[in-house]
Amino acid sequence: MRRSSITILFLVALANFAVFAVMNRPVEPPPWEGMISGLSFAPYREGQGPIDQVFPTAEQIREDLRHVAKYTSSVRTYASLDGMDQIPRLASEFGLKVTAGAWLDADKKKNEREIKSLLASVQANSNVTRVVVGNEVLLRGDMKTRQLAGYLRRVRAQLNVPVGTAEPWHVWLKHPELARDVDFIAVHLLPYWEGIAADDAIGFVTERLAEVKKKFPGKPVIIGEVGWPSNGRIRRGSVPSLATEATFLREFLNLAKQKNLDYFLMEAFDQPWKIPLEGGVGAYWGIWNEAREAKFAWTGPIVGVPSWPLLFAIATLVPLLPLLWFLNRFERFRSRGKIFFAGLAQAVASLFVWVSYLTVSQYHSVYSATAWVVLLGALGGLLVIGITEAFELVELLWNRKLVRRFWPIAPKKLARLPMVSLHLPICNEPPEMVRDTLNALAALDYPNLEVLVIDNNTHDPGLWKPVSDLCQILGPRFRFHHLDKVEGFKAGALNYVLGLTDPAAEIVAVIDSDYIVRPDWLANLIPYFADPKIGIVQAPQDYRDGDESAFKAMCRWEYAGFFQIGMVHRNERNAIIQHGTMTLVRRDALEALGGWAEWCICEDAELGLRMLEAGYETAYVNYSYGQGLMPDTYTAYQKQRFRWAYGAVQILKRHWRELAGLTPTRLTRAQRYHFVAGWAPWFADALNTAVTALALIWTAGLVTLPKLFEFPLRFFLCASLGFFALKVGKTLWLYAARVKATPGQNLAAALAGLSLTHTIGKAMFSGVLTNGRPFMRTPKCEDQPAFVRGLLASREESTILALLVLGGLAIFFRYGSDDVEALLWISLLAVQSLPYVASLATAMVNAIPVRAIAQTVPQPLGPLVPPEYESVMSRVVGGHDVNRV
User: Fold this and answer.
1) Fewest 10 Å CB contacts: which of 40, 258, 479, 698?
2) Which DSSP state fits 617?
3) Does pLDDT of 853 surpass 80?
């Protein structure tokens, strides 16, 4: 381990400590000493609550009263049924005064039972000093003022203690007539619900209390509820936290003592049962938590998360060993790349530890716990994929040199030229297109060659007969075969023609029917097979019709990213994806492995994996030797990517044991990593599709059922937004560095790739849930689609986009422009909508006949390398340990 690596780890840990420390800066509000005037008292414990009709026992109530008696001389109750009528009697054992309550709502029969029980309890217990009939009845709209006044008059007529009712300050000001039927006014002053910032909360309480007292000069005014929550969602300027709760209560208690206020703090114990009524924040108003543990101290500094040093230690230790391995293993990376990756890995670990802590420290029902587990799993998946994306970025941007780099070879003389059998499968292809391909093959400067054309499942003789005639004209090296029906997709046709291959052929070459190859393709790449370890030699796919339209220009640059970035990265560890054109395969290995897989619609990539499992090496020569045609329509573009993604899942399902290392295999750890991590971004697209669906459902819940649906933790939202920024930023960064594209071309490629997110997501889910989807041929030379057809190509994406826009507007109008969490949620919906915007935009670019500015993808490796074949092979194949991670 170099000293520089230790320095990097130290700096990253130091930065992480600084972040944790800043997030948990202590605050020190004025201390409080003395007794609390009164506490709102609800003795419900874990699993109890009036909603589920599970109530505490008399002994549990007694224990809670014994507990609060150390801190207050008075408690306020809210109901007189279901055992709550026992509270005055039990409170007398500890010298506590009681302000007894009767819960009133729209249920008249229940109201009568409440009143009857209240009267009996008050008459039997002399420690009841006041009575509150109804709590926020008018605020909830459960009854009219005259109805509430009737209950008040009835109770006042039968009791000798002061009788009042409790409402927020603005309700009293709106209904001053209610004061005629009460002996005192119980006003609720809860600045959190008003969206008041914590720094302004005490001033708000003072001003509202003075306003109520001024309105009712002849009535005693008590504060029936005053407090601040320790957790929950931000409400405009109100930020619930342990620090803000402690600060507010300590400041208020000092103010109350100074002004001799009559009040009840809201409240003694946390009440998780309130979540369905008030949202998540309803559970966190207690001075003590549900376990009856103090949530904060009344003196000294307050820290938002007291256990943050432990969280910092866990977050620092979790990535320590992997980072030690990374820094030691990849010494060839430049220092800034190591710092970037180590810092990102540390940030990912810290975020996951922090979110996990916040999740487990909250109160959960079975429903919410399940939701949070799903969210945590999704977050973990996103973070892991983000790390793999970052590794690719670092290796390709800050690598001092590539370990495996294969150049085109121009030997002066070869001792022998192994025979090549070139297989050209076609199906319903335009004969004029295939003609160009065959003419290019006829121009190959490799003499020891046969070309086998296999037409399958083409029922129109007008399509395949001209191709057959051309093969006869081109001479004996060209042989044509037609089959009316072949099972097993493209692989079935390739296996058929493999059986017709000349026995002398050592190499099988495959190209697509639209490719025009360079004459020196075989001569420059076949020499690599002199090494018996080489099973596949692959050249990149390239395209010649990128100048036809803006749509095709976008697609060409999007394709270029995979072949000039992803394949280069995978080639570093002998883990390339074989693709079914411009590929050369060792014949005896192909036959020994049973040929092409007819169960898989991506038979090329599947064969490449089996080759690696058998111990063969591959060579990726990043030089364009052939150019084909791109899909003519956005629909065809989608179908092609659907096929690739669906085939990837098929391969993973068939080979997962080998990739997981559960069965004997010659795959290296690096190869297993690349085959899993390389397709992980497509699983991220599937996750994005699922998250979009959940976001729409959640948005509907936030709008229609705000008490049941809360905005997810801000950290979840920030992580999703951060992952998207990393993904887009990485793409643009690598394109600029490795593909040498202009900024406009970068954005065009990013737009085209982003537009396929929904298609890939559907393919991944379909691949997981089904088997044997039919092979979808990518049509070429289609007519330019009409404008309406362009819209139809993105109809699913456009529908989802419309729903996301409507959801964002609904959230805005429901919560307003000053709700931080609502704005963050709208931002998430906006980010979620970008793939759907890209889909609609790409479909419209395809529909509008706009020609692209002529651009050529630069050749990544420059001119051919002239040294002798033997020296080249010893340098690029024999001189490196290609299986090193």
Assistant:
1) 258
2) E
3) no
Flag whether 385 is in a domain.
yes
Please determine, for residue 590, whether its predicted confidence score (pLDDT) is greater than 90: yes
Dist. CA 714–CA 725, nearest whole Å: 16
Amino acid, single-letter form, for residue 734: L
Contact 797, 840 (CB under 8 A): yes
The average pLDDT across 367-382 equals 79
The average pLDDT across 287-299 equals 96
Provide the domain count of the chain: 2
The span from the CA of 205 to the CA of 194, in Å, is 11
Rounded to whole angstroms, the Cα distance separating 742 from 736 reads 7
Do residues 179 and 92 share a domain? yes
Question: pLDDT at residue 726 above 90?
Answer: no
167 and 206 housed in the same domain: yes
Whether residue 17 sits in one domain with residue 33: no
Instruction: Work out whether strand 534-538 and strand 583-586 pair parallel, antiparallel, or are unpaired.
Output: antiparallel
DSSP string, 817-859: TT-HHHHHHHHHHHHHHHHHHHHHHHHHHHHS--PPPP--PPP
Q: Given 227, 250, 283, which residue is the final one in a domain?
A: 283
pLDDT digits (tens, 9 = 90+) for 465-493: 999 999 999 999 999 999 988 888 899 99
Distance CA 283, CA 277 (A): 10
Of 252, 283, 314, the residue that ends a domain is 283
Q: Which of 581, 490, 494, 459 is nearest to 774 (CA)?
A: 490
Kindly give, in sequence order, each residue whose CB lies less than 8 Å from that of residue 664, ignoring residues fewer than 6 positions away: none
Inside any domain, residue 322: yes
> φ and ψ at 103, to 5 degrees?
-85, 120
Q: Cα angle at 246 between 245 and 250, to 5 degrees?
A: 120
Is residue 150, in this structure, part of any structural domain at all?
Answer: yes
Shared domain for 13 and 30, answered yes or no, is no
**Residue 659: predicted pLDDT:** 95
Tokens coding 183: 């002996």
| Rounded-to-integer distance, Cα 669 and Cα 657, Å | 13
> 165: closest CA among 94, 260, 213, 100?
100
Is pLDDT above 50 for 864?
A: no
Tokens at residue 175, please? 């209904």
Segment 31-44 mean pLDDT: 96
Q: Are 105 and 137 in contact (CB under 8 A)?
A: yes
HSE toward the beta carbon, residue 8, CA cutoff 13 A: 26
Domain that holds residue 257: 25-283
What is the secondary structure of 115-176 as a DSSP string? HHHHHHHHHH-TTEEEEEEEESHHHHTSS-HHHHHHHHHHHHHH-SS-EEEEEEHHHHHH-G
> What's the token pair of residue 617?
């090496």
> What gap in Å lies between CA 855 and CA 742, rounded to an integer?
10
Whole-number pLDDT of residue 363: 87
CATH number of the domain at 201, please.
3.20.20.80
Q: Is 555 helix (H, G, I), strand (E, B) or coil?
A: helix
CA distance 212 to 205: 11
On whether the CB atoms of residues 249 and 227 are closer than 8 A, the answer is yes
- N-terminal to C-terminal alpha carbon distance within the chain: 17
Whether pLDDT at 866 is above 60: no
DSSP 235: B
Ranked by mean pLDDT, the top range of 405-409, 490-494, 791-795 is 490-494
Between 76-90, 474-488, 582-596, the lowest mean confidence (pLDDT) is in 474-488
One domain, residues 198 and 82: yes
Handedness of CA 354, 360, 365, 367 (dihedral sign): positive
Quick one: 200 and 259 in the same domain? yes
- The string of DSSP letters for 771-806 reads --PPP-----SPPPPPHHHHHHHTHHHHHHHHHHHH
- C-alpha–C-alpha distance, residues 533 and 543, integer Å: 30
Alpha helices in 361-430 (DSSP H): 366-397
Q: Is residue 348 part of a domain?
A: yes
Whether 270 and 289 have beta carbons less than 8 Å apart is answered as yes
Reported confidence tier of residue 225, pLDDT bands at 50, 70, 90 = very high
Q: What rounded mean pLDDT belongs to the chain?
A: 90
